[in-house]
Each structure stands twice: as structure tokens, then as C-alpha cells.
Write a structure and sequence with these properties.
binds adenosine-5'-diphosphate; ATP-binding; nucleotide-binding; alpha/beta; transmembrane; Rossmann fold; membrane; six-stranded mixed sheet; transport
Length: about 220
């Protein structure tokens, strides 16, 4: 599904150069649930951003379904990214002034879909995360776990093949974290490929495969 070949990424600021990931070979297969683990600053977020085509590698190549995207223009990459990936982050990034249903509809505004169809898809996505009864609430009327489930609904409303999650349970207590994990596992069992950064060994034990990152390299 996604293949990284000898991928490296260096960040450059005025004075500092950081080689954040180096020479990474990684194949994420269709249908897998991969947990990425490693100490803070080891390159997990950078890797996730590369896998999700949010960033381009400084060296090496990335293939999506066997097609190397190296020569794609930014616009083509953006189109492929929107068709392929949904993203979830540690902080939920919901828009506080919008109701739950409107937050979930947001990614569909850029597609040529009618208002009625948008609403139907958003409702279906919210039902998948067990929030079908909270459509008209505002984010601050929900618990952290519920807010993260709204963010998951927003990530899956466009029916992405791959869900990328950067510490999705990092701001949640263990009970709400487990609920979020239950939902990610359910989506995975229904066919969505998931790659998740986590610090939680118990969570990682629930998935197919653990990739361990240390100092910008895969160590196991
Ligand atoms: P992790 O997700 O494992 O905490 P990151 O991928 O965020 O690691 O960071 C890897 C390294 O790259 C760190 O040294 C971090 O400070 C650096 N880094 C990450 N993003 C940037 C950036 N936008 N600009 C400069 N350095 C960055
Ligand atoms: P995480 O908790 O997921 O590791 P961070 O708090 O390290 O995230 O990073 C948050 C954002 O800041 C990321 O988008 C990352 O790319 C960016 N970032 C991380 N380290 C640096 C850095 N040294 N300089 C600039 N941006 C950074």
C-alpha cells in the first residue's frame, strides 16, 4: 500500500540541521494496523507525515500502491493525499464554534457533493464512532474521548483507505483511550489500514505490528 524506500528527512532552520529520519525502509501493507513507538524526538511524527504525504522526503522515494510519487507536483500529491488518508492528532483540532455534525462535514466541502449527501455521510461517520446522538452538540459539551471520536468521524467521512493517528489517546485517560482504541480496531477490522504513534505498550499489544523507532531509524 505505502512503501518508503531509503527515506531520509532533514529539517533546516537558521542555524541547526536535524536529520530527523535516516534511510528508512518501511512497507505498510493494506489492512494492517501498525503501531509506531519510540522515545520523544526520535522521528515518529516525521515518519507519519512522510507516510501521509504531508511532507516530502529529502532523499529516497515513497510509493503509494506501487506508484512512486517523487515526480508528482504538489497539487497531484495533495489530491492523492486527500483521496487516500485521514488524519487524527493528539489534540482534537475541532472547531469550537461548529456543531459536531458541521465539524465532520468540513472535509467534504472541498468535494462536489450536495449538502444533503454531505449530511448523510457525516451522520453515517458519527454513527460509526457511536456518536449518532450528539450531532447538534458543540465540542466543549463533550468529553475528551467523545471529542476524539468526532475527530475520527471527520477523518473517515471521506472514506480514506488509510488512517494516520499521531498519539490519538495521548490526552485521554485510560478508559477514554481504550474506547478510542476500540473504534480504531473496529475500523481496521472493516478494512481501513491504520498507522498510529503511541507510547502505550498495552495499546500496541492490541495491533498487528509494532515498529520501533530510535534516533531516526527503525530498530525493530
Ligand atoms: P517524535 O514524533 O518521535 O517526537 P519528531 O518527528 O517530531 O519526533 O522529531 C524528530 C526530530 O526532528 C526532533 O529532533 C525534532 O526536534 C526535529 N523536528 C521535527 N519537526 C521539526 C521542524 N518542523 N523543524 C525543525 N526540526 C524539527
Ligand atoms: P509530538 O508530541 O507528536 O512529538 P511535537 O510537540 O514534538 O509533537 O511537535 C509538534 C509539531 O511541531 C510537529 O508538527 C513537529 O513537526 C513540529 N516540531 C517538532 N519539533 C520541532 C522543532 N525543533 N522545530 C520546529 N518545529 C518542530
Amino acid at each position: 500500500m505505502i512503501r518508503l524506500n531509503k527515506v531520509s528527512k532533514t529539517y533546516r532552520t537558521d542555524k541547526v540541521e536535524t536529520l530527523a529520519v535516516k534511510d528508512i525502509d518501511l512497507h505498510v501493507k493494506r489492512g494492517e494496523f501498525v503501531a509506531m513507538m519510540g522515545p520523544s524526538g526520535c522521528g515518529k511524527s516525521t515518519l507519519l507525515n512522510l507516510i501521509g504525504l504531508l511532507d516530502r522526503p529529502g532523499a529516497g522515494s515513497i510509493e503509494v500502491d506501487g506508484v512512486p510519487i517523487t515526480r508528482y507536483r504538489d497539487k497531484q500529491v495533495a489530491k492523492l493525499r486527500n483521496q487516500t488518508f485521514g488524519f487524527i492528532f493528539q489534540s482534537f483540532h475541532l472547531i469550537p464554534d461548529l456543531r459536531v455534525i458541521d465539524n465532520v462535514e468540513l472535509p467534504l466541502l472541498y468535494r462536489s457533493i450536495s449538502g444533503t449527501e454531505r449530511r448523510r455521510l457525516a451522520r453515517a461517520a458519527l454513527e460509526k464512532v457511536d456518536l449518532g446522538a450528539r450531532l447538534d452538540h458543540y465540542p466543549n459539551q463533550l468529553s475528551g474521548g467523545q471529542q476524539q471520536r468526532v475527530a475520527i468521524a471527520r477523518a473517515i467521512v471521506g472514506e480514506p483507505q488509510v488512517l494516520l493517528a499521531d498519539e490519538p489517546t495521548g490526552n485521554l485517560d485510560s478508559k477514554m483511550g481504550a474506547e478510542v482504541m476500540d473504534i480504531l480496531l473496529k475500523l481496521n477490522s472493516e478494512g481501513t489500514t491504520v498507522v498510529m504513534v503511541t507510547h502505550d505498550e498495552l495499546e500496541a499489544r492490541r495491533v498487528n505490528r509494532i515498529v520501533r523507532v530510535f534516533d531516526g531509524q527503525l530498530v525493530a
